[in-house]
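Backbone-to-sequence.
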């Protein structure tokens, strides 16, 4: 993109971007601020957070509390103001722990007069019900494509079908023709369950099939799905994001779905092809299902950790740029090669290290940025973005004064990169900020190379977006400084060999050139947002602009 810069008085730079057809003042941070981010600082933070002593930082565990105490001490040593509750750095979150009693629960298919009792963790995965200890859902199965109703994109899988009192079955994901971020939104389980309930369904079955299954076999998905689930509780003890009308839910394999499609007016193969072609579809199957769930509940607590650096501008100080990273990981789990501690070095000691080192860099800057900065290490991300969702619904500063969120999850560590992917940037004025930072740092900006992975909804920025706050999650692109590297293969190999495994520890190779660069990108974007007089805003008519702060 051709750029012309003109020197102005007082060191201001006027940037004219012909690609955007607009003129804006650049607020790229001073070099001394960027240089405060070092490989040594990031490595040291990661080494402590990913140490076996912290036992994988599972939500609600002793190891997580040790990590939270460490972050709190770091914030206090930096001189940042407490931004938790009751004058502390902590915001404790109550969770309901939901355990499915497998021996008392079941999923049964009735097809062509025969009954088939399915096997959990082979044919299906099922979790406990978040609000009722004993539930049953029985009814005919209706296939509804992706289970997406998106009239704003002229797409509706529920058009012309009555699912009241029935059990809907839908493919994981969203129609490929939907834009990346809205498609990710409609892929979320919460959105699909909400849509099913609004149409009168009493049960929901998610189908793991197609390209999703090709990327991750169902047997591999099962590995991530064992164990209890968590939901945060409000002051009345009600769990978040519940749909009481949905009396049963499960996720099934492609082979189980093929059985359900036997005798239907559309074959299973044709249904998958129609989905790949983004064709809305709905049809009744000649299969009925009985889902029985028996659940056991307990409670745990785990804190978010929050601190504020007050802004230097009296007019902008009441507004906040929020930096987030999830502090939790998976804790202690099934042993792999004799190791049962899931250290989470990349996921997400790296993001928390970036959060801490940015907070330290900003705390040493004089004057401070014009807007206030809020640094938030959240709990429960691995359980479904729970800590950030709780904070977004119970913020310790007014939600209307949170102008933007910059989230860091698995800060770049595999290879030194030449391009960035600012997920969410195309939806708000934050995209122009990311573009400006990229230009100053000699980087290019690329679109999401893997929209089918729905990364946009898989980390904590989504919690703020759902509450109407413009947000960015900036990843490295696939362009490496070393052209000999097969970056896509490197990412795939890491996902299959280390993601959510004990081998995500400090013994793996890290390219800290990438970690430093990515942290500086996030710092620079946040700095520019904090310095701009104009408040960030959603683009006119943007899909996510409809989510309001209330």
């Amino acid at each position: 993109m051709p750029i012309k810069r003109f020197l102005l008085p007082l060191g201001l730079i006027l940037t004219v971007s012909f690609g955007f057809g607009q003129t804006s003042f650049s607020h790229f941070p001073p070099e001394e601020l960027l240089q405060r981010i070092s490989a040594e600082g990031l490595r040291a933070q990661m080494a402590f957070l990913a140490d076996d002593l912290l036992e994988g930082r599972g939500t609600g565990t002793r190891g997580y509390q040790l990590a939270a105490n460490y972050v709190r001490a770091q914030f206090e040593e930096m001189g940042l103001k407490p931004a938790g509750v009751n004058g502390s750095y902590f915001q404790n979150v109550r969770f309901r722990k939901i355990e499915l009693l497998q021996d008392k629960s079941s999923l049964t298919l009735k097809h062509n007069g025969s009954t088939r009792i399915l096997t959990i963790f082979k044919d299906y995965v099922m979790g406990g019900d978040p609000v009722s200890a004993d539930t049953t859902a029985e009814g005919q199965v209706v296939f509804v494509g992706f289970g997406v109703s998106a009239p704003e994109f002229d797409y509706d899988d529920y058009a012309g079908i009555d699912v009241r009192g029935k059990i809907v079955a839908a493919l994981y994901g969203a129609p490929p023709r939907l834009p990346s971020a809205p498609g990710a939104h409609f892929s979320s389980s919460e959105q699909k369950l909400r849509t099913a309930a609004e149409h009168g369904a009493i049960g929901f079955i998610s189908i793991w099939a197609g390209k999703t299954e090709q990327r991750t076999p169902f047997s591999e998905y099962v590995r991530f799905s064992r164990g209890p689930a968590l939901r945060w509780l409000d002051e009345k003890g009600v769990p978040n994001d519940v749909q009481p009308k949905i009396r049963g839910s499960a996720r099934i394999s492609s082979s189980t779905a093929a059985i359900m499609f036997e005798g239907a007016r559309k074959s299973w193969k044709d249904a998958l092809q129609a989905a790949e072609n983004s064709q809305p579809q709905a049809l009744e199957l000649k299969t009925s299902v009985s889902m029985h769930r028996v659940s056991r509940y307990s409670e745990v607590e785990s804190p978010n950790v929050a601190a504020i650096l007050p802004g230097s501008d009296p007019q902008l100080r009441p507004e906040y740029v929020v930096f987030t990273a999830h502090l939790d990981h998976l804790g202690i789990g099934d042993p792999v090669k004799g190791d049962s501690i899931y250290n989470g070095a990349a996921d997400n000691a790296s993001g928390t290290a970036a959060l801490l080192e940015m907070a330290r860099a900003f705390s040493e800057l004089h004057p401070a940025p014009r807007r206030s900065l809020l640094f938030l290490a959240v709990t429960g991300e691995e359980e479904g973005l729970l800590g950030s969702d709780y904070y977004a619904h119970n913020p310790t500063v007014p939600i209307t004064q949170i102008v933007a969120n910059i989230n860091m999850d698995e800060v770049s560590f595999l290879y030194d990169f030449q391009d960035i992917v600012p997920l969410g940037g195309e939806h708000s004025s934050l995209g122009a900020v990311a573009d400006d930072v990229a230009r100053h740092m000699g980087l290019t900006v690329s679109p999401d190379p893997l929209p089918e992975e729905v990364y946009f909804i898989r980390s904590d920025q989504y919690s703020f977006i759902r509450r109407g706050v413009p947000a960015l999650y900036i990843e490295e692109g696939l362009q490496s400084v070393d052209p000999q590297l097969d970056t896509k293969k490197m990412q795939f190999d890491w996902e299959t060999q280390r993601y959510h495994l004990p081998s995500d520890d400090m013994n793996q190779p890290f390219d800290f050139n990438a970690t430093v660069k990515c942290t500086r990108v996030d710092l620079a974007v946040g700095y520019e947002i904090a310095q701009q007089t104009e408040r960030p805003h959603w683009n006119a008519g943007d899909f996510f602009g409809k989510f309001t702060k209330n």
